[in-house]
Amino acid sequence: MTDLYERIISQRQGLERIFSSIPGFRGYAEMNARREADRMLREHVVHLLKLQMTRLVNVEKKLMSTGGLASVGKTRSAKTQFQIFIDKVNTAAPGYSGFYAAEKIGPEELERIYAFDAALIEYVDKFKTAIDGLGEVILTEGDVDSKIGELESLAQEAVSAFDMRENVLREIY
């Protein structure tokens, strides 16, 4: 069984060598790897964002149980903006496409795309912090509406940032 495995692996490496000799194929394979990495990153970020949405729903329940019914309408608006961001990240087309796209993406373009990808991960932390802050204000009976406003503004900013990422990708292609 091990010999068969080694033979298959060595054939695969041989096939990769053949493909790498075909003009343009190496760039195509690299582009596919970047597309897969983009998909995996966005799936991971969506998972983390959904966890934060669950936390927000729990904080909202805490708000309702402490008599903050007047503020629940405002949390609904913040949740809607947050869900729009999650949906945009979840349904975006892969960031790298087309057979010749590998020739168009240089180090500067990749750096710009990676900066936006890093921002996606940073937004997960920003949402966590904002939701933590809202939860603390509910417990201390502070200015809940202000914290909800901050959360909604953050969600709107995240949507705008993701739209900028989409524009950068359109510029490249």
Total domain modules:
1
User: Proportion of β residues?
Assistant: under 5%
Helix content: over 70%
Give the N-to-C terminal Cα separation. 46 Å
What is the molecular shape?
A: elongated
Largest sheet: none
Number of strands: 0
In the predicted model, the low-confidence regions spanning at least 5 consecutive residues are none
Order of helices and strands: HHHHHH
* Alpha-beta classification: mainly alpha
Query: What is the tally of helical segments?
Result: 6
Mean residue pLDDT: 79
Radius of gyration: 22 Å
Describe this structure in words.
- The protein is an all-alpha fold and 173 residues long.
- The chain has one domain (24-172).
- It contains six helices and no strands.
- The protein has helices spanning 2-20, 25-65, 69-91, 101-104, 107-140, 144-172.
Indicate the topology.
Layout: H1 2-20, H2 25-65, H3 69-91, H4 101-104, H5 107-140, H6 144-172
Helix pairs in contact: 2-3, 2-5, 3-6, 5-6
Distinctive features:
single chain, 173 residues, mainly alpha, 87% helix
A few lines on this structure:
The chain has one domain.
